[in-house]
């Protein structure tokens, strides 16, 4: 686990190091889940894109692109300025405070996706809708 050193310009963030066991490069700023099915996931730190078999194992948001079997940082706590997500398509409401969760077969969080007690990601942008990269606060720790 890596704790970003506190400074005067950045909010605190917490990262873990994981290994991409998907069959292709996983793009940064997307949601990943811990993998419990793939045989290569033997070190306990393997992640994959969200699937029906691992939705409850939400890991966090991938910090940068990760090639197959490569290691990469996964942000598990703190503010992030770019998270792949899809808010409800209703521009008449503010989406700030809406919860984004993983959906099987999707690399982005969705406001109607799998949610947990306090939600894995809280959206922080006002008056946004649809698919994009949004600001949010990650609580997967």
Name the descriptors.
about 140 residues, mainly beta, 5-stranded mixed barrel, 10 strands, about 0% helix
Number of strands: 10
Strand arrangement, major sheet: 2-4-3-5-6
Main sheet properties: 5 strands, mixed, barrel
With helices defined by DSSP (H or I, 4 residues minimum), what is the helix count? 0
Q: How far do the termini sit from each other?
A: 10 Å
Average predicted confidence as pLDDT: 82
Overall body shape: globular
Structural class: mainly beta
- Report the uncertain regions: none
Tally of individual domains: 2
Portion of residues within helices:
under 10%
Rg measurement, Å: 14 Å
Succession of helices and strands: EEEEEEEEEE
- Note the beta-strand portion: 35-45%
Task: Describe this structure as you would to a colleague.
This protein is mainly β and 141 residues long. It has 2 domains: 2-76, no CATH class; 78-139. It is built from no helices and 10 strands. The chain has strands at 2-3, 13-20, 31-34, 46-48, 58-62, 71-87, 99-100, 109-110, 121-123, 130-139. A 5-stranded mixed β-barrel has the order 2-4-3-5-6. β9 and β10 form a beta hairpin. The protein is globular and about 45 Å long. The N and C termini lie close together (10 Å). The mean pLDDT is 82.
Can you lay out the helices and strands and say which pair or pack?
Blueprint: E1 2-3, E2 13-20, E3 31-34, E4 46-48, E5 58-62, E6 71-87, E7 99-100, E8 109-110, E9 121-123, E10 130-139
